[in-house]
């Protein structure tokens, strides 16, 4: 009988252990959203700080926008910072308690700690699962890729438009140069006479008539002189007789 009682107690303990393991496995994880991530703050810092309150699962910190990252690289800074984050606690009850107790409190416990001047910005996400976060991140990645493709396509169109304008400008410059060279040759090889105006024509006619009158007067003068000389000879010869 004693042996039977011992067997029953052992079986009862094993059953209790199994029930406890099942209950432990049935814990529902909870996710906390972090709305502020200080500069130089890394996932390892987050895990070290929050592990004291409960068992931590997965952690994800959202890197800063690629445009901001590009500007920082141009300024000489290669540091990668994060803008927001999500942390998963194995038990959602612990996650709720942590979010309520730490929200708007200093991140460090001592003034000499690195992030003491920063405050926790926490919010427990009800009925939010890690798969929801994965879907959201996948969607954001798809949108980002589409935006990058659109920017690349726009840059290609602008580049092609610029190159086409440059080619057109070069062709127009060559055409203008050929035209200019052709005009210079024509001016050297051809002599164009400008048409006379009506005033010039009338002036030329008047000058011609005046010249004719002067010519007639000159002839008359010559004839008169010859007649005078002839009469002088006649009278001189008669006197001598």
How would you sum up this structure, described in words?
- The protein is of the alpha+beta class.
- Among the domains are: 21-128, Alpha-Beta Plaits, CATH 3.30.70.330; 130-168.
- It is built from six helices and four strands.
- It has a four-stranded antiparallel sheet, covered by helices on one side.
- The model has no long low-confidence stretch (mean pLDDT 79).
Please specify the SSE layout and strand pairing:
Layout: H1 2-25, E1 30-34, H2 43-50, E2 56-63, H3 66-74, E3 82-89, H4 92-102, E4 122-125, H5 130-189, H6 198-240
Antiparallel strand pairs: 1-3, 1-4, 2-3
**β-strand amount:** 5-15%
Assign the CATH superfamily of one domain: RRM (RNA recognition motif) domain
- Give the biggest beta sheet: 4 strands, antiparallel
Structural class of the helices, strands and pairings?
A: alpha+beta
CATH architecture of one domain: 2-Layer Sandwich
Gyration radius over CA:
56 Å
Percentage of residues assigned to helices: 55-70%
CATH fold type of one domain:
Alpha-Beta Plaits
Q: Averaging pLDDT over every residue, what do you get?
A: 79
Task: Figure out the total of helices.
Answer: 6
Strand arrangement across the biggest beta sheet: 2-3-1-4
Level-1 CATH class name of one domain:
Alpha Beta
Along the chain, the helix and strand elements come as: HEHEHEHEHH
Subcellular location: Nucleus, Nucleolus
InterPro entries: ABT1/Esf2, ABT1/ESF2_RRM, Nucleotide-bd_a/b_plait_sf, RBD_domain_sf
Protein name: Activator of basal transcription 1
GO molecular function, one term: RNA binding
């Amino acid at each position: 009988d004693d042996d039977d009682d011992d067997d029953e107690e052992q079986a009862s303990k094993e059953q209790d252990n199994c029930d406890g393991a099942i209950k432990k496995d049935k814990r529902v994880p909870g996710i906390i959203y972090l709305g502020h991530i200080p500069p130089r703050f890394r996932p390892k810092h987050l895990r070290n700080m929050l592990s004291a309150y409960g068992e931590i699962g997965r952690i994800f910190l959202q890197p800063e926008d690629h445009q901001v990252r590009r500007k920082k690289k141009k300024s000489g800074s290669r540091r990668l910072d994060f803008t927001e984050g999500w942390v998963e606690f194995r038990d959602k009850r612990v996650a709720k308690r942590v979010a309520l107790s730490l929200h708007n409190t200093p991140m460090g416990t001592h003034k000499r700690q690195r992030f003491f001047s920063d405050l926790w910005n926490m919010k427990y996400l009800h009925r939010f699962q890690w798969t929801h976060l994965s879907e959201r991140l996948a969607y954001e990645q798809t949108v980002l890729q589409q935006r990058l493709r659109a920017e690349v396509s726009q840059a290609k169109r602008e580049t092609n438009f610029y190159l086409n304008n440059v080619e057109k400008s070069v062709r127009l410059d060559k055409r203008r140069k050929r035209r200019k060279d052709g005009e210079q040759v024509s001016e050297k090889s051809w002599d164009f006479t400008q048409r006379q105006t009506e005033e010039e024509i009338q002036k030329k006619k008047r000058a011609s008539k005046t010249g004719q009158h002067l010519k007639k007067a000159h002839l008359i003068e010559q004839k008169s002189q010859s007649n005078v000389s002839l009469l002088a000879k006649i009278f001189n010869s008669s006197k001598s007789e």
